[in-house]
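User: Modeling request: complex.
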Amino acid sequence: MASIRFKDVTKRYGDVVAVHDLNLEIKDREFVVLLGPSGCGKSTTLNMIAGLEEITDGELWFDQQIVNALPPHRRDVAMVFQSYALYPHKTVYENIAFGLRMRKLAGAELDRRVRDAAAKLEISQLLERRPSQLSGGQRQRVALGRAMVRQPSVFLMDEPLSNLDAALRISMRAEIKRLHTEMQTTFVYVTHDQAEALTLADRIVVMNDGLVQQIGTAHEIYERPVNMFVASFLGNPPINYLKGEMTRSGDELRFRRGQVDLAIPPALAARLNGFKGSQVCIGMRAEDVDERGTPAPGRAISGRVTSVLPIGSDQFLGLELEGEELFFRVGKDLRHATGETAALAVDVNRLHIFDPDSGRSLLW
Amino acid sequence: MTTSAISARRSRVMPRLSYDERSAYLFVAPLAAVLFIVAVFPIVYSFYISLYNLKLTRPRSVPFVGLANYETVLTSPTFWASVERTAVFTVIAVVATSVIALLVALLLNEDFPGRRVLSALLLIPWAIPYVANALMWKWIYDSNFGALNGLLFQLGFIDNYMVWLGDAKKTLALIAQAFVWKEVPLAAILLLVGLKTIPADLYAAAKVDGANVIQRFFHVTLPGLQSSFALVFIYEAMMAIRHFDLFFILTEGGPGNASDVVAWRIYVETFRNLSFGTGAAMSYILALATLALAYAVIRAMAQRI
Amino acid sequence: MTMTAASPARHHRARSDLSRAGRGLFLAAASLVFLSYVLMPVAWLVSSSFQSEREIVSKPPHWLPHEPTAQNFSAIFFAGEKAVTYETRRKGDPATGGFIPSTAGNLLPSMRNSLVVACSVAFLNLLIGVPAAYAMAKVRFRGRQASIYGILTTRVIPDIALVVPFFLFIRNLGLLDTIWSLIITYLAVTVPFSVFILVSYFESLPDELDKAARVDGCSRWQTLTKVFMPLALPSLVAVILFAFLASWNEFLLALMFTQTPKSQTLPIIVASFTSDFTISFSFINAAGVLAIVPPVLLALLFERYIVSGLTAGAVKG
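Assistant: Request completed. Predicted assembly structure:
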């Protein structure tokens, strides 16, 4: 059993607040990803779970026990580090066995568990080598093996894939997901890569500047971001923002900015009831446009093409309008040249609307 | 209230030492104890003694005299004369050590067969005791049979054997030479480390800019060695100012008082004149001066970085 | 046309060959110069120690002994068996008479004292310094920054300034004229530099190793002994070396605290010979040679640890 609960937890380094008033519950066997830019406090949070960082204020619970004062070697957690942190003076076998030896395991049982883990990770042939003789991918597997073999209650991973090349990263992602299903253990995973978060997580915790921005499933966070930071952090290319005015035109709510005139569907308009102001910021995801056919009025934007970047399956189209440069994903058959004017149909049902001052979403 | 709630209250109200802090203090405790008893305490005690007129020649009468000992020392012309000699010695020693060590470091920075052997052999002066160093040079400088005389005589530079250590004009320089000979290896290592931290790219860029060897030396090497030089200067200056062994064995402050430096003066005052009070005061003045010097150089260095 | 095209290339190759040879010559010459600077005085010391009293007073000196003799060394090693008396000196017995001091027999025991003191100090330096250095390098605790600065400043005070209070302190403890007085004081004098070396080296070892070990189940002590100490071996050797050499070579404090051969160390005995003008220089040089053999051997054997122990992290790759 290993549920983790942060209750009003703050972490301060002198005057700097790294994590502010964190309240988070991680259920047993969940795969939770802490996502955010560098310096947002995600690694600090992970280290607090491991016991590597002291908690300044608040309580950390493992199941029914407060563990604030419990040193790391007495917590049943295992951790995989970004730099793998393998013991250079030990063989691969000893690296994997080390944690078990510390917990007084020995003999045949120890040997069996080490070899089982090695077999699962396909590194059995490397057991007698030293870390310096291994490639990055191999070292990563040893690090995984070292953590796995202890069968811990909580599995922590701090950006374990950042140092791998792109192809390896994708295959390792799948492997980590598989590991989670097999081990049936709580996984807490830290990354700044939104693709990793979206593919691996049961739930994602988006953090910025020491504060939790949003907690939810990948779908929830992508479809219903609660503020501009979260919306822009997920999605590639990032969401396009445009500030403008909300006006009523008869029964309709319309968004206006210069030449841009978009009709807000009634479903979305209904959610805006409480909003008193007139200035808003709308968000358009790069993929929520269509370049084919002729777009209907009130559902289109047009501007000057600034760049066309083919990336194989799609193209990135840079469009300049109202002094802003926006980027969209369009099909690979689109033929526009830089400097031309292009018109795109906007899926207004998928518009995001934010309060430009607070950044908060007005819809969710 | 449940136990977890109680301990939760406690952890918020009473910040006990964390496991890490407890371990750290335990690990550091023996070191702190040793240093306190054998380093901090003597420093404090020594100051205490300097406030008393303590002469072991009349141990019964030990009046408190406050800063009078300091006054005596600071107004004594003998003291200032020895300070001057110390300064001369230190300057010669630091400059000579730095120059020779730099040349050695530059040589060791190059890659050539036998470099490892050379660098091992160059450590020999550093490894030998000061006493052995002293007697070696005493023998070499000997006026009657010394090797220095013999060499110069054989090469035809002099017609007769000369007096070396006994010549007041040459004493400090000769002692400094013996000191430098022993200090060069360590200084060379410190400078070599500094040399290795200068990025090779800087030399490449300078070459591309058209700089020749000499120019590269003055524009890349020397500036890159600034902090290493500062370290060498401070360390060697401190070693030179406090140095005692050579003065004791080679000249005992002589001839006359040609090599009567502050370290020697303190020894004489404390252990021959048996005036512990003034001896302690002198030591303190020396200690403060050394501290001030180190602080000044560190400040100057910190501003350059 | 073909002629002019070929010759610049050949000319250039010849030029670089020459400059390479020139560089080699220059380096060889420089090496020779520094080697002589370092080795000639020592070589002369060794050579003199193998010369008899008669030969050593030649003018000009015999750079290599014409009649090498081991009598100086035998006087040291067999001093116990051959007593030096007025009679032997008067008879000019080359082994004990002439210019060999009666205190020659103190040399070997003093070497033993030096050895005991140096080994103890080296060992204690490790025992006390390693845990402290680990804590200062890897553990965050209140007072960490202050302790690092504090340790270094204890060494800014010159030894002379410490002699009086040390002397009174040692005397009050009744430890005058024992090797304990030396062990304690040498420990205080060497441990700051040792800790400095160790902290630098520990700091260059990755923090994540420390974290991995702690998560793997190591207490702080186990992290130190099972993970960091094996990795810090070069610095440990450097500490042993520095502490041993500093203790072996130390003179002033030994002068203060030791009075009889019971506790006197090698530098003191050797120094006592040099102040006696009746003693022959050939004998003194022999004593000097004995004094330098152990530290020089150690330094040569562990030379690479000295540099790597000092330069942890400074040179990457």
